[in-house]
Every structure is written in C-alpha cells, then in structure tokens.
Amino acid sequence: MDKKILVFTGLPACGKGTAAKYFKEKYQAGSFRFSTIMRDLLDRVYLPHSRENMSRISTILRQNFSEDLFAKTMAEDVKNAKEDIVVIDGARRLADIEHLSKISGFKLVAIEVDMRIRYERLVKRGENPDDKSKTWEDFQADHELETELSIPELMEKADVMVDNNGSLEDFYKQLDQLVK
Fold first, then answer.
1. Rounded to an integer, what distance in angstroms lies between the CA atom of residue 156 and that of residue 169?
2. Could you read off the pLDDT of 102-127 as tens digits, one per residue?
3. Considering the domain 9-175 in this protein, what is its CATH number?
C-alpha cells in the first residue's frame, strides 16, 4: 500500500497542529512539522520561540542553504517514516512542497478559518511565549512576516480545502474524509 502523505497549509492558528495531532492519535500517523528545525535551533541558542525569531531563522537558513532546504528535509523524513499515513504540519511556500509533491500519495490540504477565530484560538492555546499577550494588531502584523506572505498562494494550490470555522467535531469529520 502506498503511503498517504497529507501536508497541511494555512495561516497561523488555522488548525494545522490540531489536524496533525488528530491523525497521530486516531490513525497512528507519522507526524512532522516544518517549524521543528527552527524550534530546535532556537532551543540550542537559548532564544524564545517567538514567531519573529522563527521567521528570522527560517529566512537565514533558506537564503544561505537553499529555498527548498526544508522541503528536502521533510521529503527525507517522509521516505524514512514507517507509518502508512504521514502528516506534515506547516508548509508555507511553494518550495516547501517541491520535493514532497513528487512522492506518491501526496496531498496538499489547506485549512481555512476566519481571521478573528484564528486570533482567539492563538491567544487561548499560547503555543509560543508571546501568544497569550498578543494583541489583535500584533496578530495582524504577524501576517506581514516574510514566512507568512506566501501561504495564501500555496493554499490556492491545495488538492483539498478544509473549513475549520465550526466545531472540533465538524473539523474531525472533514479530516476523516481525507483518509477515505
């Protein structure tokens, strides 16, 4: 059986991590995140996991090593994964899917959510140290970071669109359809 490779894209706090966690728990999927590399580096140099720091590290790595550096890393992770279903959280640009899209079973999944709902979810979850204190204006400004600008263009290339404006149960039902 070919692997199912589901790559999630969407604007900040749309539910990419929730989708990945759901597949990992319900379907024992292999799970990878584009941001893991940046988080590991920030930990190593004792810097906070702010969106700005992750954006800066991402830009530095891509400018110095190649735009598709993270795509190559994820493609290798997928090839080495033992699981039949592999989910990847956080594709942001076309270069991120360049190598992944060549692997059999690849599907790009865009998750759409109203901006106000995403803001409320981001503050509530507090994944990054600056999230809980983030103002609406800060949240809007985050969308202007270099790492966020190409997400809408990537979402347009998606094989599947998932609406996450409703309940968690509605979201999970749509995710289950991806496996079928």
1. 25
2. 999 999 999 999 999 999 999 998 88
3. 3.40.50.300
